[in-house]
Amino acid sequence: MTSNLPILSIIIPFIAAFVTGIIGNRIKWLRNILAAASVGTSFLLMIVLFKPVMIDGKIIYYWFGNWAPVDKWAIGIGLGVDQLSLLLGLIVSFTTMLSCIYSIKYLSYDDGVERYYPLFLLLSGSMLGFVLTGDFFNMYVMLEIMTFAAIS
Predict the structure, then answer these.
(1) Residues 6+ apart with CB under 8 A from 32
(2) H-only helix segments in 24-107
(3) Per-residue pLDDT reduced to its tens digit, 60-116
(4) What is the rounded average pLDDT for all residues in the chain?
(5) DSSP letter at 62?
(6) Beta carbons of 103 and 36 less than 8 angstroms apart
(7) Inter-CA distances, 86 with 19, 75, 106, 132, Å
(8) Vertex 77, ends 73 and 78: CA angle to 5°?
(9) Structurally, how many domains does the chain consist of?
(10) Distance CA 117, CA 18 (A)
């Protein structure tokens, strides 16, 4: 089964990281709402995938550039959502949503908060990409983005 939901759950935090980086401290309420809404949307997309994957037992694929496998040979970049990756995706998206909501009040008086939300959203999107990826190369790329976001 093919669906766009896996890539949307990864792309939304990346786009929100870019936008919150541009907003900075100019419009604080918009930055906070955008960060919480993006990780909340990723969590909701993971919940939408629950029925077809966990209950119906389907594996959901997304192939970038429509490079679907031919005769069981896959050379394209793909995302795959099976039961284990969905469970890990639910855990990652739920914990990042909770920590983002908590950090709105907790970091309201911190000086480096304009850098926190873009890096947090990069970390959130890359963790979801790490658990949903279908190949080792993209797993390595997501690990590099996670490392960059976590130590910056």
Answers:
(1) 104, 117
(2) 28-48, 50, 83-106
(3) 988 887 777 777 777 778 888 999 999 999 999 999 999 999 999 898 887 878 889
(4) 91
(5) E
(6) no
(7) 27, 23, 30, 8
(8) 85
(9) 1
(10) 10
The predicted model gives 22-39 an average pLDDT of 91
Please report, to the nearest 10 degrees, the dihedral formed by the alpha carbons of residues 82, 84, 88, 89 taken in order.
10
Placement of tokens 């850098």 in the chain: 115
As given in the structure block, the two tokens for residue 22 are 């541009």
Q: What is the dihedral of CA 133, 150, 43, 39, to 10 degrees?
A: -130
What is the spatial distance between Cα 33 and Cα 95, in angstroms, rounded to a whole number? 17
What element of type H or E holds 79?
strand 78-81
Contacts of residue 75, defined as CB under 8 A and 6 or more positions apart, other chains included, come to: 67
At 13, is the pLDDT very low, low, confident or very high (cuts 50, 70, 90)?
very high
Domain ranges, residue 18: 5-151
